[in-house]
Amino acid sequence: MFLAPINPVDLAIRRPIHFLPNFPRTRRQQGVAGSCSAGPARVQASAPARKGVVVLPGLGNNKKDYDAIAADLEEQGLVVNVAEVTRIDWLRNAAGLVDINYWKGTLAPRPTVDWYLKKVETSIAAVKERTADGSPITLLAHSAGGWLARVFLLGYGTADIDRLITIGSPHLPPPEAPFVIDQTRGILKHVEDNCPGNFHQEVDYVTIAGKFLKGAKLGDRTASNAQKIAGAGYRQVCGDAEAWGDGIVPLASAHLKGARQITLEGVYHSPVGAVHVLEDGQPGRQWYGSRKVLKSWIGFVTCPRSELKTATVKVEDVLDQVAG
After folding, report:
1. Domain range for residue 33?
2. Number of domains in the chain
3. How many whole angstroms separate alpha carbon 232 and alpha carbon 9?
4. Is residue 228 part of a domain?
């Protein structure tokens, strides 16, 4: 999650999508239990005029990966800016290698990730130039961008930020267990210790997770290769190889206590490797930002704060939306 932006599950399942195991799916989106009510998602609300959204890329991703979701958000009347991150930028995290705390597993996020935080600051400034003074700005953070957003809010403050929405973000440090290695080398523990859950009460937190693939232990002869590879990754993130997740991040790690928690059925982790339509015309592997999936949760971006807390959420079947 930190220094090695490799997506082994994508390598295993990118082309032969049809070979994925026929694992059971529930027919409704599931809300993961937490201190706030949870539920899937279409909030019936109109978008405030010219609200800003800053998209924070995940580990190994670059700005271009989010062109489609940014365009779809702009179509909703939102002012959108994607942080100017390139793939090679992620090599800057290697600066942490010279810190003894990296090797001890007690690394703090700063100054190692300051390069990313500065890009977030620049994107927020760019949105402010296109919106009226005082217009709310939502941080929409993918994957590692989620915990990086939490680091940003802790260090830079919450001025003008009304909401943090994370999609497929590994928020929680892994358990201390044999053969489980914290890939952030202590950063996630630092974040959880210093700004746990919905830490900033003036900011609304929404965590969105995908239930795409159930992992499996490497020795499970009944499981597919994709499940085994996903399971190996899940184990390093949450300690459980047999967890459900979006192919990269397990559900157990993707939600924050006190956040509005949304779990989407059949939704894959990344725009890289997502396949919107198969050759036979059937829906392919959809990620959080695929257009029809986005429609199921965009209300959490557009609705005012009062409606986020009290809105009636219409339960819909994401799989049917994708097929439609």
Report:
1. 8-323
2. 1
3. 10
4. yes
